[in-house]
Specification:
Layout lengths: L1 H59 L2 H21 L1 H15 L10
Length: 109
C-alpha cells in the first residue's frame, strides 16, 4: 500500500513537471515571436518615418520641418501612451494572468 502511494506521488510530481515545462516552452516561444515581431516592426516604422520625413521635406522645402513634424507626431504618441499607462499596464497584466494557468488542486489524469 505504501509502495503504491509513493509511486502515485512520483507520477503526480512528474506530471506537474511536464505541465510546467510545457507551459514554460509555450511562453518562451511566444516571447521570442513577440521580440522578433517588435524588431521587424521597429525597422519598418523607422524606414517609413524616414521616408515620410523626406517626403515632407520635399513638400515643405526644409528637412528641418519634415523631421520636426514626424518628431512631434511621435511625441504625441508618447504622451498618449504615458497618459494611458495604467490602463495599458492592467491589460498586459490581465493577458499574462490568462497565459500562465495555475492549478489550485491536483487532478487525476
Amino acid at each position: 500500500m505504501l509502495d503504491s502511494l509513493v509511486k502515485y506521488l512520483e507520477v503526480n510530481i512528474e506530471l506537474i513537471k511536464l505541465d510546467t515545462k510545457e507551459t514554460a516552452v509555450r511562453i518562451i516561444a511566444k516571447m521570442m515571436k513577440a521580440i522578433v515581431m517588435m524588431i521587424l516592426g521597429s525597422f519598418t516604422l523607422l524606414f517609413i518615418s524616414l521616408a515620410l520625413a523626406f517626403y515632407l521635406d520635399s513638400l515643405l522645402g526644409s528637412a528641418f520641418y519634415g523631421f520636426f513634424i514626424i518628431g512631434l507626431f511621435y511625441l504625441l504618441l508618447l504622451i498618449g501612451f504615458w497618459l494611458s499607462r495604467k490602463k495599458i499596464n492592467r491589460k498586459i497584466q490581465e493577458s499574462i494572468d490568462v497565459e500562465i494557468p495555475i492549478k489550485l488542486e491536483f487532478e487525476d489524469k
